[in-house]
Amino acid sequence: MVAKITTGKDVYGALAYNQQKVDRGKGKVLLTHILREPADGRFDVATMAEDLLRWMPSHYRTEKPVVHISLNPDPEDRLTAEQLAEIAEKYMERMGWGEQPCIVFEHTDIDRRHIHIISVQVGQDGRKVKDGKRNERSVAVTEELEREYGLHPAKECKRAEDWRLTAVDCTKGDLKRQIGAVVKPVAAMYRFQTLGEFRALLSFYNIGVEEVRGKRGDIPYRGLLYTVLDKDGSKAVAAPLKSSVFGKRVGFEELERHMARCAERFKKGGERLRLRRRVDDALNEATSEQTLRECLQTCRIDLFLRRNDTGRIVGVTFIDHETRCVVNGSRLGKAYAANAFEQRFGDRQSSDTDMQSRKREPSNERSDMRNSRNTRGRKL
Description:
With about 375 residues, this protein is of the alpha+beta class. The protein has helices at about 10-25, 45-55, 80-95, 135-150, 155-165, 175-190, 195-205, 250-270, 270-285, 290-295, 330, 340-345, and strands spanning about 1-10, 25-35, 65-70, 100-105, 115-120, 205-215, 220-230, 240, 300-305, 315-320, 325-330.
């Protein structure tokens, strides 16, 4: 069973996403805790949000008080609604959120029945509930629940995504080891068709990549440089490292072959249709860029928006961690490309400072390595 935890500011958006599943007959409310239940059994977003917000004092210092958790058993696990509700209760209790108000939804819109829990991580005293080493503790809790209910263990590759791949921290030193610990498994696990898509994926781990060209004597060469990005994701904070120090698998030639294979598979596979359906659902229910991110993250999809110096959206990339496929929005159609997102979200930019919304230098993300220009000396 895989747990995905996201936090945010918009309780209405998180509740609306789940309630719309219920309204369409693709979900139901399994459980509530310290929340009023309507006499007719019909929940509405405004009342649920009011109850959750009432729990917290008017003044609190936590930037993102809302917690949105999805618990995803293996598709082969056969659990009743009562068992799913029990699992939700036990998960919240063991994570330290047992005394917090929450509402639990079951989703049946895909082949994998799963549950979503909406809660707040601020107590009645205005203090944030302690959540140190949250991801590690979540993995331990889900492993306990797998044993108790005889569930299929979560796949090791998903475990790696959740807690073994760690963003590079330039203050901890040994940058070669830190970059290599991300670049090598990411290049092996994920499918991408351009250097821009690979760059978008690495940016979530504070890593930049650029192509370089030159000549050794009369022989031209092309290579890659990896570096650490600053907290805004806009420039390097350390000297770049040649790809050769990490091995041939993450060098220019091997990645070029990998991208060609990925392009052929993308044409034949169903990743495009699957991703479009998920993004469509999220877009239909999102009221802002932030709620769109939260909706996508419940499906294990990250959104990368690249903006130029004026703040205009010039690139959109979706990273599907379930299929491990990285896709430029334009590959899904005009409705998912940069211009469409600029029209919808350009005047309502998220206030988040997460990596996903950091500014990027304008570039044509659709061009592949063969059309890339020499970027030596430019910001990543």
